[in-house]
Specification:
Number of strands: 10
Strand content: 15-25%
Number of domains: 3
Number of helices: 17
Radius of gyration: 27 Å
Distance between the termini: 54 Å
Shape: globular
Order of helices and strands: HHHHHHHEEEEHHHHEEEEEHEHHHHH
CATH topology of the largest domain: Nuclear Transport Factor 2, Chain: A
Helix content: 40-55%
CATH architecture of the largest domain: Roll
Structural class: alpha+beta
């Protein structure tokens, strides 16, 4: 009898150990595929066999029935850990109305900057937010040009150009700023940066009389992160309440465009020398996903600033601003088939590559940048080379025979990497090519194929004093570039880490909402289904309510990871979501077909 019990005991233990091994394996997979685990979960995978062996040995050493108790506790802990991991997802961090002020961050900054006034700064942010919305509606940035960066100006300017081609206007009503929260304060070279969460509601409608099929919009509540930059230690001259030059007092030009410069003393107002300047707008989910990961890579910022310490004008935020500025001007040049727009700031090799671009009459119904992040730095010969990942969202339209036809039924997103190069020991720059100013003599530079300055004769697209765009790579091309030149890299973030806080379920859930809203309706059955799905996948339903609101107002874009196997899984879930009510609408089918084509998803 004793021997029989022992055999049964061993059989039960074997079964329980199989369950235990499955639990451990599931946890490792989840940590790798989920958020924040990174190298710790990856490194643990190779020791799984040894761990199981140790557990088997220990369990057999524990007398019956305590060995069963131990197994039960381990399985319970594994379940609890898995449940905890389910809550550690970026979507559960989406901002809510009651965002808590980061008092410690503010207090530390005030200790170093005693003249900083929180309420005065928030008043500037609110004023900028309202004025920029008004300027956007009027498609006229002149009044706000003095306190927005060149890259930020270009983000809005390209959309104006596309809207004019499509004869669109954006009507805004009932704008209400509900909350302004200082989220982070950073030091970047000789600059300070304050990242601010703005919660607002708006009625926002795109209208085109000529192409009414493009009309869209409605009431929306949202959170965006606005980043303001200023040089350290300067005495603030309020740019937000005056139209006068902060240096000489003369009235600033009323026709300010690519460059915000005083006509009298030639002072450029939007470099952070006089007041806070808006340098970036990031959507909430992109800010939480990409920015939080990049901000943890403090060693990257330290190494890059060390790399460029001989350049007193260098800051990461300004580099990202130049990259976004140049990227959007290149997009504009390709869309309206005018190479003169980009010639002055791209290398000869890249210009040759881009000049062969030949697309039909394609216009962007939507084109905006979600996030711009410096991800790596290298040195080759006498040059520094920086890599900037740019995530953009877009929806293309083809114009033929007086008709506008949507190529993309919904807004899609993509990530490309811009490579920028400048000499390690550059000459002092007197202006920015991206703002039509010659770096050598500060003379104005027109859109032209000629790469020589008409005033001083200097070569414009030279790396001697300006950061020049040398290439634009998609994700796979950048990975190959990184591998081929890895010995030259001094600092960098793995490109895969830019999406590491997003799991397959996060992409799938986001895309399921987009599919369900594709037909312009969000039925109660669909809402209930997504709520059940949210609970099943470990989301806090009350935290992701903003996503439902964004989906109803077409505020979400299709997201896909770089991994093709993950893309396949996500697409299958999107197909199931489309068919949940027993009928796939033409709009949903068009969306699925478009995603399948864009991401080259194969049938299985």
């Amino acid at each position: 009898m004793k021997k029989l019990i022992s055999q049964n005991q061993q059989a039960i233990i074997s079964v329980m150990l199989v369950v235990l091994m499955i639990s451990i394996y599931t946890l490792n997979v989840y940590a790798r595929a989920g958020g924040g685990g990174g190298s710790s979960s990856g490194g643990g995978g190779g020791d799984g066999g040894g761990l199981i062996g140790i557990l088997i040995y220990i369990i057999f050493m524990i007398p019956f029935p305590w060995n069963f108790v131990v197994i039960g506790i381990i399985i319970l802990l594994g379940w609890w850990g898995n449940k905890k991991n389910q809550q550690q997802t970026v979507l559960n961090q989406l901002p809510m109305a009651n965002i808590v002020d980061r008092q410690k961050i503010i207090s530390n900054y005030i200790q170093q900057n005693p003249t900083f006034n929180v309420e005065a700064f928030k008043a500037k942010v609110k004023q900028a937010f309202i004025q920029i919305q008004e300027a956007w509606m009027l498609k006229d940035m002149k009044k706000v040009r003095k306190y927005i960066s060149d890259g930020m100006y270009q983000r809005l300017n390209i959309q104006f150009k596309m809207m004019n081609i499509l004869e669109q206007k954006n009507n805004i009503e009932n704008l209400l700023v509900k909350n302004i929260i200082i989220d982070k304060i950073e030091s970047d070279g000789s600059f300070d940066i304050i990242h601010v969460a703005i919660q607002a509601s708006i009625v926002d409608k795109f209208v085109s009389v000529k192409y009414p099929q493009l009309n869209s919009g409605g009431a929306e509540e949202f959170v965006e992160y606005w980043s303001f930059i200023k040089k350290k230690g300067i005495k603030e001259v309020n740019l937000f309440n005056t139209q006068n030059c902060p240096k000489c007092g003369a009235e600033l030009p009323k026709d300010a465009g690519d460059v915000s410069q005083c006509s009298y003393c030639k002072t450029i107002t939007n470099l952070g020398d006089y007041d806070w300047v808006l340098s970036e707008i990031t959507q909430a989910d992109d800010y939480i996903n990409v920015y939080s990961k990049a901000s943890k890579e403090s060693s990257l910022a330290v190494k890059i600033n060390e790399l460029c310490k001989t350049n007193p004008d260098f800051s990461i935020q300004n580099i990202e601003d130049k990259a976004s500025n140049g990227y959007l001007q290149i997009v504009t040049a390709k869309a309206i088939k005018d190479p003169t727009i980009m010639r002055r700031f791209v290398s000869d090799e890249l210009y040759e590559k881009l000049s062969h671009y030949n697309e039909s009459d394609i216009v962007y119904n939507r084109i905006y940048l979600n996030d711009v992040t410096l991800i790596s730095a290298s040195q080759t010969g006498n040059k520094n080379i920086l890599s900037i990942a740019i995530k953009s969202s877009y929806q293309r339209v083809i114009l033929e025979d007086g008709k506008a036809t949507l190529i993309d039924p919904i807004v899609l997103s993509k990530v490309e990497t811009v490579l920028m190069s400048r000499d390690i020991n550059p000459q002092l720059s007197k202006g920015s090519l991206y703002a039509h100013v010659c770096p050598s003599c500060a003379g104005p530079v027109k859109d032209t194929i000629d790469t020589k300055c008409q005033y001083c004769g200097a070569e414009l697209n030279s790396t001697k004093s300006e950061w020049i765009i040398t290439d634009i790579l998609d994700i796979s091309q950048y990975k190959n570039y990184y591998k081929e030149n890895k010995d030259d890299f001094i600092a960098g973030i793995d490109i895969d880490k830019l999406e590491s806080l997003y799991d397959v379920r996060d992409y799938a859930f986001n895309n399921v909402l987009v599919v369900m809203a594709a037909d312009g309706k969000f039925e109660q059955q669909e809402i209930e289904m997504t709520q059940k799905l949210a609970k099943k996948w470990g989301y806090k339903v009350e935290r992701i309510q903003p996503m439902f609101d964004m989906a109803k107002n077409n505020g979400l874009t299709i997201r896909m990871p770089y991994n093709q196997k993950k893309q396949q899984k996500i697409f299958k879930l999107m197909e199931k979501a489309a068919a949940i009510d027993g009928f796939v609408s033409p709009e949903e089918k068009a969306l699925l077909d478009n995603v399948k084509q864009q991401y080259n998803i194969q049938d299985v």
